[in-house]
Amino acid sequence: MFKTPGPVVLPVIHVLDSARTRQNVETLLEAGAQGCFLINHDFAPEQFLPIIRDTRAAFPSLWMAVNFLAVTGKDAFPILGQLQSEGCQVDAYWADDACIDEDGANSEAKAIAQARIDTGWDGLYFGGTAFKKQREVDPSRYGDAARESCPFMDVITTSGVATGQEADLGKIETFRAAIGDRPMALASGISPENAQAYADVDCFMVATGINKPDNFYDIDAGRLAELMSITRTLAKGIPS
After folding, report:
1. pTM of the full predicted structure?
2. Could you tell me if 119 and 74 are in contact, meaning their C-beta atoms sit under 8 angstroms apart?
3. How far apart are alpha carbons 109 and 97 in whole angstroms?
């Protein structure tokens, strides 16, 4: 979709208001990023929706995705479907918890999948699997969780143990072995300093690693440019 050499870089913007969000989007576009995620860490989804609408109006062609913090797809997809019907397209949804059951029952994941169908929303679904701050999955079951996730989402999405924490490389290797060539995203701990270790990942969803020092909200253009330069060396056949 993105036609990029190496992993796709999708900065995650922790939004506060429309003006600051626009500034961050302008920064990432100038750096050549392929799109972004917006997330509401500081307020409820209802307060988030005007910012989403304002950002889409300001950047009609931006690949824009969202995360409603702690909201599964079952509740998010109807909202996204309504936005779509109004002409406000959200290109992807990231849920921290896709409700995957490594034992295979997956009743909640099936309900989420049906909600997605019922709403008619046609964006991509990034589903959190063995994800930070969610139900803990025993590391011995990471492969099972990754395999079970495949039918339920477009991009299998995992993380380290906490925001800004690197993912264990063994976990990434296990996920890749389990899902084959399905798209995989990593949503914590990526930085220009460690990106080369995660060449098996297809998408870097990154905030802490590219933000200004001691700043939770604003992208550092230089850090982002450095990360993107590194990812281009991770494409197959291009020496690092």
Report:
1. 0.94
2. no
3. 10
